[in-house]
Design a protein that fits this description.
The chain is an alpha+beta fold. It has a single domain, classed as Transferase(Phosphotransferase) domain 1 (Transferase(Phosphotransferase), domain 1, Orthogonal Bundle), CATH 1.10.510.10. Helix content is 33%, strand content 12%. The strands form 4 sheets. A 5-stranded antiparallel beta sheet has the order 2-10-6-5-3. Strand 5 and strand 6 form a beta hairpin.
Length: 272
């Protein structure tokens, strides 16, 4: 008989990462907490993508879908799950996600792979370092959003400008820069050039070197989704997403779920 899979859910009375990071003025996340939260999210996604017997894509990784307990342990919640068959590297599906966190190939064409989660993780990692909401923050330097600012800062060698000033000076600047560089790798517009979540976790932990960002952020490799490269004559990182009709996308308007799942919450139950 085949294996059946049971999801054991934890019921928490807790806050989301978004609430703690963007709204809770009387609570400051120090660097150690931010580093741990980021690693927890990466570890959970690595399990879903690479370690579970079912290859699962979350589809809506964002700060409101990361729950924190009283000890600031992070769990991924509110799964809009999609299972990838062993024979397929991607599926084409109706879009279900949140603007500002969706990978371009998924937001525009419904082309879904595990690399869509990697992209979303990159956005969340930048939010963790900067303390700013990618969907709401508008930089003063004519950038479209936090991610746009981060790519420009990386090109200018000024990534440290993104670091949350609430961290003060008592934090590991090398680790913060590493997290931002990993985040930008994850948010590459080309799916094939995004790292796997297992590699992301190892880069965050410093066990492997952070790869170089080797693609101009205004371009995208399109052969893997059979698209006409002519539409990329302009910088499309955010222009096309911004110009999308709201009615053409599914916005997640559900409240943050009280049920969450993380790597240790997934068990395989085999029947004879």
């Amino acid at each position: 008989m085949g294996a059946n899979y049971c999801w054991f859910m934890s019921i928490w009375r807790t806050s989301s990462l978004a609430h703690v990071l963007f709204e809770k003025d009387d609570f400051k996340l120090d660097w150690a907490a931010r580093k741990k939260i980021c690693a927890d999210i990466a570890r959970g996604l690595a399990f879903l993508h690479e370690e579970s017997q079912l290859k699962i894509v979350h589809r809506d990784i964002k700060a409101t879908n990361v729950l924190l307990d009283k000890d600031l342990n992070a769990k991924i919640s509110d799964f809009g799950l999609a299972k990838l068959d062993e024979e397929k590297s991607h599926i084409t599906t109706r879009i279900a996600g949140t603007i500002g966190y969706m990978a371009p190939e998924y937001a525009l064409w419904g082309h879904l792979t595990d690399k869509a989660d990697v992209y979303s993780f990159g956005v969340v990692a930048l939010e963790i370092v900067s303390g700013k909401n990618n969907s709401k923050y508008r930089p003063a330097n004519n950038c479209v959003c936090l991610l746009d600012w981060a790519f420009i800062a990386q090109q200018n060698g000024s990534l440290n400008e993104l670091i949350d000033p609430r961290l003060g000076t008592d934090f590991n600047k090398e680790e913060a820069e590493r997290m931002m560089r990993v985040a930008l790798l994850c948010a590459n517009t080309s799916p094939s050039l995004r790292p796997t979540m297992l590699s992301v976790l190892e880069m965050l932990q410093g066990t492997i070197i952070v790869e170089e960002l080797n693609l101009d952020p205004g371009t995208i490799i399109v052969e893997e989704v059979n698209l006409d490269p002519g539409i990329y004559a302009e910088d499309i990182r955010f222009k096309l997403l911004r110009d999308q009709s709201p009615s053409s996308l599914l916005y997640d308007t559900r409240p943050v779920s009280s049920m969450s799942a993380f790597s240790q919450d997934l068990y395989s139950v085999n029947h004879g």
